[in-house]
Amino acid sequence: MVTVRDGEAVGLRGNRDQPYTRGALCVKVNRYLEHTKAADRILYPMKRVGPKGSGQFERISWDEALATCAERLAEIVEKHGGEAIWPYQGTGTLGYIQGETGEAGRRFWNVLGASQHELNICSRAGRNGLRFTNGTAGGMDPETFAQSKLILLWGTNTLTSGHHLWKFIQDARAAGAHVVAIDPIRTRTAEQADEHLPIRPGTDGVLALGLLHVVLEEGAEDRDYLENHTQGWDDFKAEILKYSPSRVAEITGLPEEDIRSLGVRLAHTRPTGIRATMGLQRHKGGGSALRLIACIPGVTGDWRHPGGGVSYSTSAYVPFAVDTREDLLPGPVRTLTMTRLADELDESVKCLWVYAANPMGSSPDQNRIRERLLREDLFTVVMEQFPTDTVDYADIVLPSTMQIEHMDLHAGYGHMYLMWNEPAVEPPGECLSTTETFRRLARAMGLTEPSLYDSDLELAEQLLSGAPTINLDQIRKDGWARIDVPTPFVPFADGFPTPSGKLEFTSDAAAAEGLPRVATYVPSRTASETRGAESGKLVLITPASHHFLNTIFANNPELLRRSKDPAVLIHPRDAAARGLSTGQLVRIFNPHGELTAKVEITDKVRPGVAAMTKGRWLKLTPDGANPNTLVEEADADMGRGPLYHDNWVEIEPANLTATRA
Ligand SMILES: Nc1nc2c(c(=O)[nH]1)N[C@H]1C(S)=C(S)[C@@H](COP(=O)(O)OP(=O)(O)OC[C@H]3O[C@@H](n4cnc5c(=O)[nH]c(N)nc54)[C@H](O)[C@@H]3O)O[C@H]1N2
Ligand SMILES: Nc1nc2c(c(=O)[nH]1)N[C@H]1C(S)=C(S)[C@@H](COP(=O)(O)OP(=O)(O)OC[C@H]3O[C@@H](n4cnc5c(=O)[nH]c(N)nc54)[C@H](O)[C@@H]3O)O[C@H]1N2
Ligand SMILES: [Mo]
Q1: 567-570 and 609-611 as β-strands: parallel, antiparallel, unpaired?
Q2: What CA–CA distance (Å, rounded) separates 490 from 504?
Q3: How do residues 548-564 score in pLDDT, each as one tens digit?
Q4: Which residues surround ligand 3, an ion (CB under 5 A)?
Q5: Which residues form the 4Fe-4S Mo/W bis-MGD-type domain (predicted)?
Q6: Do residues 497 and 503 lie in contact, with contact meaning Cβ atoms separated by under 8 Å?
Q7: Ligand 2 center to residue 397 CA distance, Å?
Q8: Residue 63 near residue 404 (C-beta atoms within 8 A)
Q9: What percent of the chain has pLDDT over 90?
């Protein structure tokens, strides 16, 4: 909620009536107002005047910007066809009108026949894995964790990446729940948990099987649930029996006693709630890991109870009537993959149109992306709020509004409410919302399709037509509305949206895609630390920073100050093997790239792992690189998800390079 005085935003706070957030803001959004007024905000359209990548621009008028874009787009469509345009939309905003899943742009691109853009950078691998088991990525209402008696925080850093859940975990604890964090890093969340299992990265599927092995040893499987609500139990049981706790200990690097004791707890604690988010699926076997974790409540029968089951995402429950408007396409078009920008930005692409994305900082294989963006015949447009590393490669830059300046409808990133975003102030300078930019562009191109000119309020009405219990006036007044589901919400009480209507341990849909029919462990590329140790390599994990939101806020001076210098965390064992001491500058490298950072030696990371947070702007680091210089552009087992936490790196003192050179 924004307080406005004389047309200027002077205060920002969370809405205390919102049942999930209760008005709490994170360290980043606490500075959002200051961020909207930052000195480096882009306020006017600009055109490139220096070489590509130099970041040298000159202010131009909107008329000139729109005319240039309209002319170039029309010429590309005529000469090469619409598919030569790649509308590269990111997760900068998740609003349904202005952002990710939203209406902005899609109709426009379809009318031009542009390539479709597959926005799979974040959560697709895990979502697909869950779909094979449950038929959907939707699961528990996170608020029901307050009723759980055992909580597994599995590959998720709640206190950093989704802190609103923590209140519900605390409520559960007050009622006696036991909380376990499963993470190769002792994160701030793991520090607060009752127990921490520092698992070897990419081996979570094996742990899921091992825990179920113990459940079977205990005779605690829910036979009635297995018989009536699941498919493929005999095959899956055979799979579980391959993974004795001792074998699981070997693969996961966890003590056998810990696996056994957690298995016993799981066997006898109802309801058990599992929160597994995106961290553990950014691996080669990430989709399969989520698929297996989703099998656990099928065996324990936890879906019977509020507070039982698995929670990954709530987006499946969002009732908005999103229409992808394929009817506007002139014919079939190809799909380009967000996680494969370096590979797919070849000569066939003549225009890259980036909005709400910062691929130079956030996408895998930074160095190859940079090479691609330097291509002289590529027309690159970036719609942005700030002069990011990606902006530096633009031919035309279009200034964009921020949340307090535009209208939007949001669905929670992990809760069961819809939120209204009413613009509180006029945009500064000449900033325009994404929807307004595309309306003006459509006009500049003389496009006649009427739906290209729908107003934001009309778009909101259309989206809300999917939610009959929520009306526009009411949500505009209240700011939020609960999705129309019962409270407490127990999903799958009426069956699973799978082909069999049951929870599927075996999936014909998976088999049809060339994946294992039975849910099974698929190792990540770096799952064998032994191999790493022999070759002197470490597994690089690059999770969320506490101070930045992907690359957003990573130019805020105060948050930069708090986040300190870029650091890589390694275990004392691995530091000793390399003769490193804390604070020393090290070179981290692999065949894809290299960067320098301070080393922090700590038993917070397990041996064999190097951890570095994501999100830094390249131009604000000592050597113009962030960890994505080390991330290979390669696919997870499902959904072509990225492999951000699944790369080998080597680390050596930085001065070695100097002496060698
Ligand atoms: N502060 C902050 N919050 C954010 C974001 C941010 O950048 N900053 N980003 C937002 C976005 S877009 C997303 S998608 C989410 C992401 O947030 P999360 O879903 O929490 O994902 P990550 O931060 O990638 O990883 C979470 C944890 O998984 C661990 N992990 C890595 N590999 C493995 C593994 O193989 N097994 C297990 N068990 N654990 C593993 C990491 O060490 C990390 O602690 O956060 C959102 N919230
Ligand atoms: N190494 C590593 N890299 C990662 C991850 C990881 O775990 N490790 N996580 C990945 C994840 S989870 C995600 S979701 C992706 C995110 O990758 P991207 O989608 O590329 O997101 P950001 O880097 O946050 O860049 C978003 C940009 O959008 C701009 N923006 C925000 N709102 C608006 C708006 O309303 N209009 C316009 N025009 N622009 C806007 C912001 O200023 C920002 O520069 O990054 C991924 N990158
Ligand atoms: Mo994400």
Answers
A1: antiparallel
A2: 18
A3: 999 999 999 999 999 99
A4: 122
A5: 1-40
A6: no
A7: 17
A8: no
A9: 95
DSSP string, 84-108: GEEEEE-SS---TTTSTTSSTTHHH
450: exposed, middle or buried (Cβ count in 10 Å: 0-12, 13-18, 19+): exposed
Write down the mean pLDDT value for the chain.
96
Which ligand has its closest atom nearest to the C-alpha of 160?
1
Chain segment 618-653, per-residue pLDDT in tens: 999 999 999 999 999 999 999 999 999 999 999 999
Rounded to whole angstroms, the Cα distance separating 64 from 423 reads: 27
Res. 656: pLDDT tops 90: no
Q: Ligand 2 centre from 627 Cα, in Å?
A: 15
Mean pLDDT of 313-336: 95
Report, as an integer, the average pLDDT of 366-379.
98
Q: Is the domain defined by 38-119+320-411+417-482 classed in CATH 3.40.50.740?
A: yes
**Across residues 342-360, what is the average pLDDT?**
98
pLDDT for residue 659 is more than 50? no
In angstroms, the CA 393 to CA 661 distance is 30
In this prediction, what percent of the chain has a pLDDT beyond 70?
98
The yes/no answer on whether domain 529-653 falls in CATH 3.30.70.20 is no
Supply the CATH classification number for the domain 129-315+499-512. 3.40.228.10
Residues 6+ away with beta carbon under 8 Å from 532: 526, 538, 539, 608, 648
Residue 658 has pLDDT above 60, yes or no: no
Alpha carbon of 45 to ligand 2 centroid (Å): 21
| 348, two tokens | 């066939």
Beta pairing, strands 503-504 & 480-482: unpaired
The H-or-E segment that residue 25 falls in is: none
- Give residue 60 CA to ligand 2 midpoint distance, Å: 26
Concatenated DSSP letters for 444-489?
HTT---GGGG--HHHHHHHHHTT-TT--HHHHHHHSEEE-S--SS-
Specify the 3-state DSSP secondary structure of 427: coil
Contact 339, 281 (CB under 8 A): no
Ligand nearest to the CA of 205: 1
Amino acid of residue 157:
N
Provide the residue ranges of all domains of the chain, joining segments of one domain with +: 38-119+320-411+417-482, 129-315+499-512, 529-653
**CB neighbours (10 Å) of residue 223?**
11
Name residue 649's beta-bridge partners. 538
Same fold, 129-315+499-512 and 529-653: no
Q: Which ligand is nearest to the CA of 541?
A: 1
Q: Rounded to whole angstroms, how far apart are CA atoms 32 and 93?
A: 13
Residue 529: predicted pLDDT: 64
Please check the confidence at residue 181 and state whether its pLDDT lies above 60.
Answer: yes
Q: Which of 591, 9, 517 is nearest to 291 (CA)?
A: 517
Pocket of ligand 1, candidates 161, 196, 522, 552: which has the most ligand atoms within 8 Å of its Cβ, to mutate?
161
